Amino acid sequence: MSAPVVPSPRAGGEPPGGEPVLAIDDLTVTLGTRNGPARAVAGVDWSVAPGRTLALVGESGSGKSMTVLAATGLAPRSATVTGRVRLLGRELTTMSETDRRRWRGRHVGFVFQDPMTTLNPVLTVGRQVTEACEEHLGMSRRQARSRAVELLDLVGIPAPERRVDAHPHQFSGGMRQRVVIAMALACEPELLIADEPTTALDVTTQAQIVELVADLRRRLGTAVVWITHDLGVVAGIADTVAVMYGGRIVEQGPVDAVFAAPGHPYTRALLAARPRPGAAGEELAAIPGAPPSPLDLPAGCAFWPRCPVRGDARCAHELPPLVPIAPGHRVRTFYPTTADGGATADPTTADGGATADPTTADGGATAEDRHQLRPEDR
Amino acid sequence: MGRFVLRRLLQSVVVLLGVTLVVFLLLQLVPGDPVRVALGTRFDQQTYDALRERSGLDRPLVVQYLSYVGHALTGDLGVSFRSGQPVTSIVLERLPATGSLSVTAVLFALLVAFPLGVLSAMRSGSFVDHAARVFSQFGVSVPDFWMGIMGILLFAGVLGWLPPSGYVALTDDPAGWASHVALPAAAVGLVTASILTRFIRSSVLEVLAEDYVRTAEAKGLRRRVVIVRHVLRNALIPVVTVVAVQLASLVGGVIVIEVLFAWPGVGRLTYDAVQARDYPVLQGAVLFVATLFLLMNLLVDVLYARLDPRITLR
């Protein structure tokens, strides 16, 4: 991992920001199941800018993976997808299947959860890493092979000239995930989608993979969508975070603001459930109950049955809108948490601006927490 | 790999010894005196005793068995009670007929089962899938001899396109061979095709659900590349076993069809040997089929190692 072997016009060039790489708007995914339609994702919108990292956070079944799969045309055949998805300014939902396939393969790289099953056992890793380059960049077999050696070196695989012809079963889990990352970056995509890439790995390897992706993002200027249920990872790498519950975004904002002053009771509960270094030996907080089934979602707020705030009948029957509580920070609840930790009334009636300002908020997270989040910001 | 093959061949010899022992003992249990049957109307006590002594049947069982095995190791499987011909050459003579029928049947089966199985897996739940399932249900339910009889009635009787039975060697007259092999091969192949269609379908379905297929799709590869390079490469590995075992069992097992179509193969030979109590020929035929099974299994193992890099032969 020494020399920048992947030349990229974006590397270290223009500052991050600007036109979004991927913007999804009002995305809804309904899966046809044996027991009727299941609404996996409902009215989700977010975007990610070049060189930025968006974390999609939520429990299993919250719709976070389905959101990106559907957006990029990888949803299962039984799924009905509506909404708008723009990848590098081009609308994906109205594209032909063939165009979408090409556009996705050329501009988006995917890292999936389990490196043990993501790779094809009968093909050499080199072939798998750069077969997309043959398809999308018109490389010859030989060019693709030497490109694979470069990429394996880039992701820190020792002796890449030798390892390029090895098969996946000859690699450890962590090394396989590096191979998958090399594969995702093969066509120099503008966007990297990492779907719980560390979940199947042991803790020390997890840290290495997180560090590797963060480092590659800095060097290559790739935008990253990181799907995870691990808030600790989010704090370390993301710029913005979107928390999903029951197929909807319940809170979205800059990572500092969300961690410092979580506005949604669910986000607060998630943050409280994290193990903390100072609290060894104490029992971890848990959220009672289970997430709702996408087959049978409540009419109102999906979190209401488990909510510690427990508002009124309105929560049970009316879907709260996603409302801003600070610049760029939106929350879907009638009872956003205020800076002092309590819950205010409806933000549309209360003077929410001042109370929810994350810069003055102190109740949401401890100083230790925030130090842990982004040391470079302190 | 060379050492693997060598060791497996040595193991095969042990297995074959077991096969000869079982067959030898089984034949002792079969009622009927082979020498008496062989003589038929020419029977008189003197000839009977002479033939019995000449074929060694008057000696103790252990001696008979050991001498059989001893000769078998040198390729001598004894002589037929019936014709006096060496068994080895009798069995080998039947090989082209049986081999060409079995291979044609398996090729026919693959030609049907491969596209049908892959297509019905790729479009699972579609019309093609349902049609394939009805076909394979039909194929495994209907006995091959009935298919053969229907085939004869339709193509030889009503339409008159094909000869109803008989055999022409492939080397003598390829066109004549083809017209004669068509019906028996189709009758046998249809059953094999049904088994293979089911097997290929479920194998492909299983691989289609693998994560690495989603990975290949995420890369934006063409559908054809995803199917051929990622799905079929993996799905067809277990199919190799089924095809090889089917082929081996056809060589020894198309008895009814060979009798029905007057096809002079190993199956027919086995049938005739049983009828005539021609024990040396029967033993030879069984030994031949067992050897073929062992070789096929060895071939499958070697092929597996070539197809799946996770397997190494040691």
Structure description:
By secondary structure, chain A is α/β, with parallel strands linked by helices. Chain A has two domains: 22-242, Rossmann fold, CATH 3.40.50; 262-273 and 296-377, no CATH class. Helix content of chain A is 32%, strand content 21%. Chain A is built from 14 helices and twelve strands. Chain A has an eight-stranded mixed sheet with strand order 6-7-8-3-9-10-12-11, with helices on both faces. In chain A, strands 2-1-4-5 form a four-stranded antiparallel sheet. In chain A, helix 4 (125-136) packs parallel to helix 7, helix 5 crosses helix 7 (173-184) and helix 7 runs parallel beside helix 8 (203-220). Chain A is globular, with a radius of gyration of 21 Å. The model of chain A is unreliable at 1-16 and 343-378 (pLDDT under 50). Chain B is mainly alpha-helical and 314 residues long. Chain B folds into two domains: 2-87, no CATH class; 94-277 and 292-307, Orthogonal Bundle (MetI-like fold), CATH 1.10.3720.10. In chain B, 77% of the residues lie in helices and 0% in strands. Chain B has 13 helices and no strands. In chain B, helix 5 (87-122) runs antiparallel to helix 6 (127-141) and helix 5 crosses helix 8. The mean pLDDT of chain B is 87. The A-B interface holds A 72, 74, 101-106, 108, 110, 112, 114, 117-123, 128, 131-132, 135-136, 167, 169, 180, 183 and B 210-212, 214-222, 225, 229-230, 233-234, 237, 307-310. Chain B: InterPro entries: BPD_transp_1_N, MetI-like, MetI-like_sf. Chain B: Pfam families: BPD_transp_1, BPD_transp_1_N. Chain B: The chain crosses the membrane at residues 101-122, 143-163, 175-196, 231-261, 281-304. Chain B: Keywords: Cell membrane, Membrane, Transmembrane, Transmembrane helix, Transport. Chain B: Belongs to the binding-protein-dependent transport system permease family. Chain A: One of its GO terms (biological process) is peptide transport.
